[in-house]
Amino acid sequence: MKFYDKGFINHYANYTQVQVFSAGNVVLNLKIYDDRVCRDTFECQTLKQFNKEYLSASYEDDFIQKLFSQDNKDIYFKDSENGVLIKVIKE
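Below the sequence we write its predicted structure tokens.
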């Protein structure tokens, strides 16, 4: 997955929603729960499956959940070995 556009990270009681927009259209819509990640296609995967398919199987199961739950102004994660770069600049 590669995205270089604007988006939103919303925190709700039961999940965190990550939405990325390009030219006003949603190009990524994830709902990250404690035990799964669901895409806007209504397809859900365990956190472990999501890591294996999109990031790296070596990551902790809750990696993506912890990453987007940070209150930091900016989020930056780079893993050159696995070719993963996640950079979020909050405005």
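Residues 6-89 form one domain.
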